[in-house]
TrEMBL record:
InterPro entries: ABC_transp_permease, BCAA_transport_permease. Its main location: membrane. GO terms for cellular component: plasma membrane. Pfam families: BPD_transp_2. It is found in: Cell membrane. Belongs to the binding-protein-dependent transport system permease family. LivHM subfamily. The keyword Cytoplasm does not apply. The keyword Membrane applies. GO terms for molecular function: transmembrane transporter activity. Keywords: Amino-acid transport, Cell membrane, Membrane, Transmembrane, Transmembrane helix, Transport. GO terms for biological process: amino acid transport; transmembrane transport. This is Inner-membrane translocator.
């Protein structure tokens, strides 16, 4: 029972981070119909920017984290304006290939600046353990879960009550109607990419602290995010949250109970991806769109 509780809490913490990154994926898709395959590299950029601010420039870590998140948001806006905006009106497959190329470009830029050797990360989260219902759980996992939930609450309030949040909801619902009401769709796209970069940067910072180091492997979490958003629904924000928790729990239980040499924990998200595409391709909470021709 102790092992079950430990794996469950670890899976929930990991799932919260997955959901946080998936939220940015969903926002980009809802606002611009772009499937962003470079989301994992945005994680990487956030982690390395934080490393640079704190370890290389010696900033006080709260200031370094805030500055890194701001720079990640600026990078997200620049990507939208310089790379994605010229692709407006192009076929969907062309935009997808651009985001795949963008992921390779961002990874190459990170490698050119910081190299490919893993680097020890500054510890922002406590490394102690606590006992919950008889199971030892890392305090860093609890902090990661709490910070992810806090950001979810902030974003929920932003979407519900702020002017830009309401505009984003309008664009996600119907771009033509939003344009007729005077809403700047291009501004909404820029805000969506900025928020996606912020959520990815926070996720990268949390992963960096939990792993105790920063390296290119952080970008692999971006691959797990894709099964998360497919499971929850490409256009569903609640689906991203629930999908992240489901994938996190399944991955934790598979890695904890099955023989490690099987490597099932690594492939569980993609097994779920195949299953959901066969059974319910629009996801658990995605909008089912029927086109008549």
């Amino acid at each position: 029972m102790d092992r079950f509780i430990q794996l469950a809490l670890s899976g929930i913490a990991n799932g919260a981070i997955f959901a946080l990154v998936a939220l940015g994926f969903v926002l980009i898709y809802k606002s611009s119909d772009v499937i962003n395959f470079a989301q994992g590299e945005l994680l990487l950029i956030g982690a390395y920017l934080t490393y640079a601010m704190v370890e290389q420039f010696g900033l006080w870590w709260p200031a370094g984290v805030v500055l890194a998140v701001v720079l990640a948001a600026v990078a997200g806006v620049l990507i939208e304006q310089l790379v994605l905006r010229p692709m407006i009106g192009e076929p969907a497959i062309s935009v997808i290939m651009v985001t795949i190329g963008l992921s390779s470009l961002l990874r190459a830029i990170v490698g050119a600046i910081w190299g490919v050797t893993p680097r020890p990360a500054p510890q922002f989260l406590p490394t102690d353990t606590v006992t919950i219902l008889g199971a030892n759980v890392g305090v860093d996992r609890i902090w990661a879960f709490g910070l992810a939930i806090t950001l979810f609450v902030i974003l929920t309030l932003f979407f519900r009550y702020s002017r830009d949040g309401i505009a984003m909801r309008a664009v996600a619902d119907d771009q033509q109607a939003a344009l007729s009401m005077g809403i700047s769709v291009k501004k909404v796209w820029a805000v969506a990419w900025a928020i996606a970069a912020i959520t990815a940067a926070v996720g990268g910072i949390l992963l960096m602290s939990i792993f105790g180091g920063v390296s290119g492997t952080i970008a692999r979490v971006g691959l797990i995010v894709f099964p998360v958003v497919i499971l929850g629904g490409l256009d569903s924000i609640p689906g991203a949250i629930i999908g992240g928790l489901i994938i996190g729990l399944l991955q934790s239980f598979a890695g904890g109970y099955l023989p490690p040499e099987w490597g099932v924990g690594e492939v569980v998200p993609f097994i779920i991806l195949l299953f959901i595409l066969l059974v319910r391709p629009y996801g658990l909470f995605g909008q089912r769109i029927i086109e008549r021709v």
